[in-house]
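Posting here for the record, re: S-(P-nitrobenzyl)glutathione.
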Amino acid sequence: MAVDHRNEKSQRLVSSQSAYPLMADGHSVITHVTILVFLRGKRYGTLNSRGVKFSLKICRDPFGQFVLVLKAGCSTGPDRVHRRNQSMTPTITAFERSPDRGRGLARDMRVRWALEEVGQPYHVRLLSFSGMKEPAHLALHPFGQIPTYEEDGLALFESGSIVFHIAQRHAGLLPEDANARARATTWMFAALNTVEPPIVELGMAKVLESNEAWYEQRLPMLKERVRNRLRQLSDRLGNADWLDGEFSAGDLLMVSVLLRLGPIGIVEEYPNLSAYVARGEARPAYKRAFAAQLAVFNAAQ
Ligand code: GTB
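Prediction output follows.
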């Protein structure tokens, strides 16, 4: 995406932007601006936004012409240019003191990871268990849980929906090709609707039923249901790095779901899934998200 700096309107905007303070990451915060986006002299779209974060750079395109490069992930058509850049810094909610002791198993982790992948800064509002049941939070989340997501006039709950929203708003988590995008979205649903339920059931049985008489009898059945899904997933993944081409929001959610088995140790029975999870954990965005949630837990000690 390039903005033709020879266009007079664009030029005027560029010089006015220099009056705005640069943030630590080199982005500039602009409260309200209209930019006409040109690609090789052809009008390409209009970016008309409030509170957009982006940076601009003058360079030469492959044809030797000077162009102004907009670094904000808006790389396709006018619609997407418009949609992807309207948000203020979002606020998510997370445990004030996570029961997993900062191991990244609570569901704010997948939202943090998605935000890190797309380079979107965010605020975190920390909540106690009782705070989650207060009317103010129940207005955001009908089930009194974390995570939630708020930005300029929009409030969301459900980690899957939040990750999907982030993936739609920003480049990097869903392919541009419509069919590939639909397949990646399918993997998001598969992670949450098909793979996560037996994993959660196994985990909940450990937490809630381990003192019950039936627990030892039930455990093999619960583990077999998890193994069944992992076997199928392992067969489909084969030797691939990711589930369908490039890393996507489908992988982000699938890795997040598999990580919940960490303490139980079943993933290791499937070496390709183990390597898949390790690839996810090795991503810089994952590491930043993990460090951020661990810092919250440590600060609460
Ligand atoms: N379907 C919802 C989503 O995906 O957003 C589920 C949200 C959810 O379960 N939130 C949990 C919560 O708020 C935290 S993540 N629980 C409080 C309550 O219901 O009152 C689940 C979780 C909690 C703890 C661990 N752990 O300790 O390992 C792992 C996962």
